[in-house]
Design goal:
Elements (H helix, E strand, L loop, with lengths): L7 E4 L12 E8 L10 H14 L6 E8 L13 H4 L7 H21 L5 E8 L1 H18 L8 E7 L10 H10 L4 H13 L4 H12 L3 H12 L3 H15 L7 H4 L16 E7 L7 H11 L1 E3 L16 E5 L13 H20 L3
Parallel strand pairs: 2-3, 2-4, 4-5, 5-6, 6-8, 7-8
Antiparallel strand pairs: 1-3
Helix pairs in contact: 1-12, 3-4, 6-9, 7-8
Family: Belongs to the AB hydrolase superfamily. LDAH family.
GO molecular function: lipase activity
Keywords: Hydrolase, Lipid droplet, Membrane, Transmembrane, Transmembrane helix
């Protein structure tokens, strides 16, 4: 019998007595999409960790840890929710999730250092709205650094997968759901209706029905059934989606976020800007083609496969934004395409680490 989905995944090699600690530890900190259950990404995250760990098996200069947690309010039981820490009960809005992610990240970095890691650096990986959260965490932490408040949490890179970072309401799905989400009570009513319809169904039976009608693999179907039966899941997902529709509109970040690894424009921050990478689907029902193309035109430099702008030419400090023209990966890649996307992300992580290792 399957247990409830995990709320947190932390993949790392336990310290071995007498073994020299790595010179530098990179935490791959993952931010989920909505619904924000990290269990959907177990295959993706474990494969990513396996690939990266294989790369460093004989290299003690670098150690990787992979960490992900469910977004707040998506926990499987009320006891797991940090109500006291967050000073409020679910549902949590988009701004709550950003604050919670920043708080959890800084706590994690401190914890890893207390366990003996010497030089800890972070690469954020966000899926869908998780990419928006990642950019906001970068902005806030760099603002704290400029104010002299936080130099400990050093983010050296960020990867956005099928990112919804501007104009989500103009997407195909956004236009369909926005009229319903305008009603502030919709999330409550929808949650009550779903709870009523599924009240007598055990998770195992509900998972079987979901697998049959959606084509989901067993693990994803079980996670979905557990999400439906969780204390706040449906309301939390819709409450957050309402915020996404009305808050994720214009580009709110300046060159200190977008100017990845740039010498120009200059930054006054003590840490280099994070190196950014983005992967878009060729067709994405949550990202309009026009929105994606405009973002690439104004903020990024285009990449097609392995073809990128030549180093030193043009604005090569801008983030690479790649459109998946070959594989056909969907927005919800984590359901059936976690392994190949993890391998793409591992390649980008290697590139970010290689650039970062050349710095002090």
């Amino acid at each position: 019998m399957r247990g409830p989905p995990s709320t947190q995944l932390h993949l790392r090699t336990p310290p071995e007595p007498g073994k020299k600690a790595a010179a530098r530890t990179y935490i791959i900190y993952f931010l989920t999409g909505n619904p924000g259950l990290v269990e959907y990404y177990r295959t993706f995250l474990t494969h990513l960790y396996g690939v990266l760990s294989h790369d460093t098996a004989s290299n003690r200069d670098v150690e990787f840890q992979v960490y992900g947690r469910s977004l707040s309010g998506f926990e499987m039981n009320s006891k797991e929710i940090k109500t006291m820490k967050w000073r409020k009960a679910p549902p949590y809005g988009l701004q709550d999730q950003i604050r919670h992610a920043e708080d959890e990240l800084t706590d994690l970095v401190e914890e890893v250092k207390e366990q003996g890691a010497k030089d800890v650096r972070v690469i954020l990986v966000g899926h869908s709205v998780g990419s928006y959260i990642a950019l906001e965490v970068i902005r806030r932490l760099r603002a704290h650094g400029m104010a002299g408040e936080d130099f400990e949490t050093r983010i050296v890179g960020a990867i956005g997968l099928f990112p919804t970072i501007v104009d989500i309401a103009r997407s195909e799905s956004g236009m369909k759901v926005s009229p319903f989400l305008k009603n502030s009570n919709f999330a409550v009513f929808a949650a009550l209706l779903v709870n009523f319809l599924t009240f007598l169904l055990p998770v195992s039976m509900l998972a079987t029905l979901i697998a049959r009608f959606s084509g989901f693999p067993k693990d994803a179907a079980h996670t979905t059934a557990s999400f439906v039966k969780s204390p706040h899941g449906i309301q939390q997902a819709l409450h957050m989606a309402r915020d996404e529709m009305f808050q994720i509109d214009t580009d709110i970040w300046d060159e200190d976020v977008w100017g990845a690894a740039a010498s120009e424009p200059a930054t006054k921050h003590p840490h280099s800007r994070p190196i950014l990478r983005f992967l878009f689907a060729r067709k994405d029902h949550w990202v309009a083609d026009a929105t994606r193309d405009a973002l690439i035109s104004t903020r990024g430099r285009f990449s097609y496969g392995d073809v990128e702008e030549v180093e030193g030419m043009g604005e090569n400090w801008k983030p690479v934004m790649e459109i998946d023209e070959r594989e056909g990966w969907p927005h919800g890649f984590c359901i059936q395409h976690g392994v190949p996307v993890a391998e793409r992300v591992a390649r980008w992580v290697r590139e970010i680490v290689a650039q970062d290792m050349s710095k002090r």
